[in-house]
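Box 3.1 A note on notation
Throughout this textbook, protein chains are presented in two layers. The first layer is the amino acid sequence; the second is a token string describing backbone geometry. Keep the layers aligned when reading.
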Amino acid sequence: MPHITVESGKLTEEQKRTLVERLTAVSSEVMKIPPEFYSITIHEIDDASYGIGGKCIDVVKQEYLGKRSE
């Protein structure tokens, strides 16, 4: 039974439902395994608990949004 794990920032309930639906559909199509066999886990990680490039994501987002408004 295939299992898909997603790690992301905070998601809305609608985003979660859409993600589960689409990941299942695409994986089923590609792998030729019925959708009923898939399980999916979504792990939400707050921005201060995840880093990239030596910075926490909350800082990266602030810097990105600051550059976009210039």
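Helices lie at 13-31, 57-68. The chain has a mean pLDDT of 94.
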